[in-house]
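Re: your question from the hallway

Yes, I did run it. Sequences:
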Amino acid sequence: MPNLKDLRVRIDSVKSTQKITSAMKMVAAAKLRRAQDQAEAARPYSERMDRMLGSLFEGLPTGAGGPELLAGNGKDDVHLLVVMSSDRGLCGGFNSSIVRGAVRIIRRLLDDGKEVKVLCVGRKGRDILRRDFRSLILDTFQDLGRKRLSFADAQTVSDRVLTMFEAGEFDVCTIIYNRFQSAMTQIVTPQQLIPFKANDASPANDAGNDEAAGDSQKAVYEFEPDEKEILEDLLPRNLSVQLFRALLENAASEQGARMTAMDSATRNAGEMIDDLTITYNRTRQAFITKELIEIISGAEAL
Amino acid sequence: MADTVEFELVAPEELLFSEPVELVVVPGAEGDFGVLPGHSPLISTLRTGVIAVYENDSVNRRIFVSGGFAEVTPERCTVLADEAVALESANRSDVEARVKTDREALESAADDDKESAAAALAVSEALLLALDTAGQA
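Structure:
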């Protein structure tokens, strides 16, 4: 029969765990709100950027090579994968699902005989990836946007990627991040950045296109200085913007995942407390009954 | 034809300005250009400088930009700024502090970082200059 005191101690400990998880849930909810606001605020820039790139592509003579960031360097041998995860744990399946997605891509590329290099953003993803692919990981960015993600954070990452690309260290760059669907669902999304593909799947595109539809889209633009130079300025910028967008989505997803995980942890703790309380009460009752029996049979024996 | 042009100023982290204006003067890479309604379509890079928004033939608002891109259509003028500071709301001592930290950063920077530190300093000095010029005007 379980000891009454042990039961009491367990109930207390589960109760305090429950307090922690419910506090974490509320913190995550607040952070999620902030992350969503930020993602919302950053949207206009990337929309306009998409629109401007669209106009530039229209003006570009078809078939022309264009800058390497756009057209690629003609090779497909070395792949760079930027894996975005979180710095902290306790956020449910967030990191493991992103790593699972990354591992699948890495294996496929390796099977095809390509060379793979990995840049990690966030400590947790690196920790898991390191078990299997230690030799592939080049570097890790940590503590990005600890307080608040800024565009400068995205630029540190994109600077690194650009330097590597210019040095010819890789041919194709793909980022993999968790796209924020809702607090419950995050979708692991790979997105190819170099060579640049206009992504029509992104939700940000729709609003921008609606608005632009009424304008004189077909207009022929003048370019100052000229198309090529603008494109050379705009493409690295676009890389930062895409990375920034992914970082923001990822941050919102992380908080969403954490909120959901902590919510179910709180609920599980509640159930456990109920179970333990019932056991506790039954045990106490059993003890009392046992003592009564002892007294009565003692009295009868006299 | 409408007598205003839709002017939008966006920084990477937020939409700063979006309203119809009569005239806006933008510091293009190859010289300032004014945008009135019906401007021919243009895409240009920007240099560090000040965007001036006009209302009733006088400057209504000045915004410092450190660089970026502008897209102009007959109805619209969109500026994607790398960094933008409204000069009315900027505080001179804050800007001075920023120039100072940037200058110190340049002095202590390693050789690899010299270039970017120098660029940051150039931007903050330009901002200070812009602030002073705006104050006199």
